[in-house]
């Protein structure tokens, strides 16, 4: 059954005349008659009683008319909805973030600007770990996510927002305190305070030690930044964190850069890979948001701009997401 057959059927039913109906749908009468016969054959039922003077609906035809009108109205509504979404008059934008997002990104401000531009688009926001958010992107439950990531998995496109080096932090009275820099080899026997294994920062640290063939001791695994910093400040272990985080706690923690090895913590925006014809997602709402993100003055002209020391965005908030 084709859409045009329903249009032809409704026209004949409303006009009660094949010639007028043919003029209404702009086809010849013989083609209209053939279309109605094919529809009746497919349904296995007679829809019209035909005579030389008039055409009228059968009982089955009257019931089918209601359904045909409803189907055509549903198609019209669907077309209008698509047109509205293409024009960003309506739709949804689902965004995910890791926790405590961040000094690098003023997301509330970006969302407010997007809402001002496209008030008909409903914006949704959720939080989770890097692994959890990537799963949501793959399944289509969210359009994009802000998260730390070393290498994008298959099917995921990422664009760097900021890059910052990890530094070692320890208690002020720790044996490592006061050093200008530390080597990873010097940390192999130290107890570490780490994030949980599925957190992006934890994976980054694990990979750095694996690449140089060093085993380390992880004695604490936590799921929030404040607990990690407090455990380190109490002398219960050391940790590797982005420099901005460390500098915000300089009064209670000792900070030392990592020598000979640079461990870059990257904040990216991730979304499902497209068909290769465009770097942006196929749907208009996430595409418009990414274009807004790319045009933000804080980026210095574009998402591809890599910024050292984590100053891709200028805000007063020193919080950085590490999950």
From TrEMBL:
Signal peptide, first to last residue: none
Pfam families xref list: HTH_1, LysR_substrate
Nucleotidyltransferase in keyword set: no
PROSITE patterns linked: HTH_LYSR
Sequence ranges assigned to domain HTH lysR-type in this UniProt record: 1-58
TM segment ranges: none
InterPro entries, per database record: HTH-type_LysR_regulators (IPR050950), LysR_HTH_N (IPR000847), LysR_subst-bd (IPR005119), WH-like_DNA-bd_sf (IPR036388), WH_DNA-bd_sf (IPR036390)
Entry keyword Coiled coil: no
Keywords, alphabetical: DNA-binding, Transcription, Transcription regulation
Family listed: Belongs to the LysR transcriptional regulatory family.
PANTHER family: BLR3139 PROTEIN, HTH-TYPE TRANSCRIPTIONAL REGULATOR YBHD
Protein name as catalogued: LysR family transcriptional regulator
């Amino acid at each position: 059954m084709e859409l045009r057959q329903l249009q032809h059927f409704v026209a004949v039913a409303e006009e009660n005349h094949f010639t007028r109906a043919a003029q209404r749908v702009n086809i010849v009468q013989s083609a209209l008659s053939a279309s109605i016969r094919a529809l009746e054959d497919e349904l296995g039922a007679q829809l019209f009683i035909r005579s030389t003077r008039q055409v009228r609906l059968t009982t089955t035809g009257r019931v089918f008319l209601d359904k045909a009108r409803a189907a055509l109205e549903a198609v019209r509504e669907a077309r209008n909805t698509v047109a509205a979404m293409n024009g960003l008059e309506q739709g949804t934008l689902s965004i995910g973030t890791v926790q405590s997002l961040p000094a690098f990104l003023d997301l509330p401000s970006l969302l407010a600007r997007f809402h001002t531009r496209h008030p008909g688009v409903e914006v949704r926001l959720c939080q989770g770990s890097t692994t959890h958010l990537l799963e949501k992107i793959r399944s289509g439950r969210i359009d994009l996510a802000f998260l730390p990531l070393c290498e994008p998995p298959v099917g995921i496109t990422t664009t760097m927002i900021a890059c910052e080096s990890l530094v070692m932090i320890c208690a002020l009275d720790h044996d490592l305190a006061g050093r200008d820099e530390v080597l990873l080899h010097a940390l192999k026997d130290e107890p570490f305070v780490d994030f949980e294994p599925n957190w992006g920062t934890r994976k980054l640290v694990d990979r750095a030690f694996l690449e140089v063939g060093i085993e380390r001791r992880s004695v604490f695994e936590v799921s929030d930044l404040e607990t990690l910093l407090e455990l380190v400040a109490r002398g219960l272990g050391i940790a590797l964190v982005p420099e901005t985080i460390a500098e915000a706690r300089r009064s209670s923690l000792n900070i030392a850069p990592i020598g000979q090895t640079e461990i870059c913590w990257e904040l990216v925006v991730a979304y499902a890979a497209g068909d290769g014809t465009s770097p942006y997602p196929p749907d208009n709402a996430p595409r418009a948001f990414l274009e807004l993100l790319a045009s933000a003055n804080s980026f210095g002209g574009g998402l591809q701009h890599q910024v050292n020391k984590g100053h891709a965005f200028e805000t007063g908030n020193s919080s950085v997401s590490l999950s």
